[in-house]
């Protein structure tokens, strides 16, 4: 009994004729007939009856057919396992992340991973918010790091951390004397706001700022841009904490903001890749790194 014989038998039952089975398997009709005959001979069972051009399974044939699903499920699992093993052997990872993460926490994750796996080559690509959520579906992608979103078909989502955004102030700003910044402190200030776009990522910001009498003069899609404008004294902003240490080192004042503006970050990968060993190892490192910023 050979796998090709089982494929021919299964296709014949499903398609109803030997010719249709041959077409679906992309082989000739005589080849399918020979495979079926060989299968019946090897099993010593009469599996099929021919009636007016149709192929009808016998009682033994139908009982045998019902058992085939288990065989093909196992075969499919073996094929997927082989793909994963092959993927592991390729020793490469393709990662995308939102810009703020690409210049802060993701390189830290890659560094720790590379110490353990120096043989793995890694491509890190930065994706703008507008493209990020559609790129998660790309077959070539291994891991994506970004804001939490709703469930997506065939995509696994690993929640990494819920973090508090911080208040970023220009060097020597009057509010730098305070240990914690509140909405009342921002009255009359020029606020640098983050563009919502179609994803409404910063709705909590919008709700908070509605209660503040502020100057809205500058708007940007990226927190890196906002930090750079703050360094130039153009305004203040409530921004992600991951790149805050980089900007604090060059003079931007960082303070906690109360009440908390919290956002959740997640990692995304395709469901079919969840058994990939090196992907799982990087995700474990990522979870530990993000937990350092956990609220």
Topology:
Blueprint: H1 3-15, H2 18-25, H3 29-43, E1 48-51, E2 54-57, H4 59-90, E3 92-97, H5 99-102, H6 105-116, E4 121-126, H7 129-135, E5 143-147, E6 155-164, E7 166-169, E8 190-194, H8 203-209, E9 215-220, H9 223-231, E10 237-239, H10 244-248, E11 253-256, E12 262-270, H11 277-291
Parallel strand pairs: 3-4, 3-5, 8-9
Antiparallel strand pairs: 1-2, 5-12, 6-12, 7-10, 7-11
Helix pairs in contact: 1-2, 1-3, 2-3, 6-11
Could you explain the architecture of this structure?
The protein folds into three domains: 3-87, Orthogonal Bundle (Arc Repressor Mutant, subunit A); 91-162 and 264-291, Periplasmic binding protein-like II (D-Maltodextrin-Binding Protein, domain 2); 166-259, 3-Layer(aba) Sandwich (D-Maltodextrin-Binding Protein, domain 2), CATH 3.40.190. The model has no long low-confidence stretch (mean pLDDT 88). It has 295 residues and is of the alpha/beta class. The protein has eleven helices and twelve strands.
Features:
three-stranded antiparallel β-sheet, 11 helices, D-Maltodextrin-Binding Protein, domain 2, alpha/beta, five-stranded mixed β-sheet, 295 residues
| Main β-sheet description | 5 strands, mixed
CATH superfamily of the largest domain: Periplasmic binding protein-like II
Low-confidence stretches: none
Distance between the first and last residues' Cα: 60 Å
What CATH architecture label of the largest domain applies?
A: 3-Layer(aba) Sandwich
Q: How many structurally independent domains?
A: 3
The helix-and-strand class reads alpha/beta
**Strand elements, count:** 12
Please state roughly what percent of the residues sit in beta strands, choosing from under 5%, 5-15%, 15-25%, 25-35%, 35-45% or over 45%: 15-25%
Strand order of the largest sheet: 4-3-5-12-6
| Count of DSSP H/I helices | 11
Q: Average pLDDT, to the nearest integer?
A: 88
Q: What percentage of residues falls in helices of 4 or more residues?
A: 40-55%
Q: Indicate the overall shape.
A: elongated
CATH-assigned fold name of the largest domain: D-Maltodextrin-Binding Protein, domain 2
């Amino acid at each position: 009994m050979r796998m090709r014989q089982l494929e021919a038998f299964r296709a014949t039952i499903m398609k109803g004729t030997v010719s249709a089975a041959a077409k679906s398997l992309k082989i000739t009709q005589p080849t399918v007939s020979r495979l079926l005959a060989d299968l019946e001979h090897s099993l010593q069972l009469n599996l099929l009856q021919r009636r007016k051009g149709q192929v009808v399974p016998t009682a033994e044939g139908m009982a045998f057919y019902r058992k085939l699903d288990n065989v093909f499920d196992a075969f499919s699992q073996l094929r997927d396992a082989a793909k994963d093993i092959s993927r592991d052997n390729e020793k490469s990872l393709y990662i995308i992340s939102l810009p703020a993460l690409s210049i802060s926490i993701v390189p830290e994750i890659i560094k720790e991973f590379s110490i353990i796996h120096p043989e793995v080559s890694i491509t890190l690509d930065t994706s703008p918010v507008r493209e990020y959520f559609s790129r998660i579906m790309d077959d070539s992608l291994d891991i994506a790091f970004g804001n939490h979103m709703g469930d997506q078909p065939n995509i696994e989502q690993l929640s990494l951390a819920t973090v508090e955004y911080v208040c970023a102030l220009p060097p020597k700003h009057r509010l730098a004397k305070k240990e914690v910044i509140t909405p009342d402190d921002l009255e009359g200030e020029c606020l640098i706001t983050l563009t919502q776009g179609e994803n409404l990522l910063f709705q909590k910001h919008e709700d908070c700022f509605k209660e503040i009498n502020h100057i809205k003069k500058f708007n940007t899609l990226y927190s890196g841009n906002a930090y750079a404008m703050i360094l130039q004294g153009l305004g203040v902003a409530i921004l992600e904490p991951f790149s805050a240490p980089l900007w604090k080192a060059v003079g931007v004042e960082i303070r906690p903001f109360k009440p908390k503006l919290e956002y959740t970050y997640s990692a995304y990968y395709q469901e079919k890749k969840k058994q990939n060993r090196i992907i799982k190892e990087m995700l474990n490192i990522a979870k530990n790194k993000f937990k350092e910023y956990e609220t």
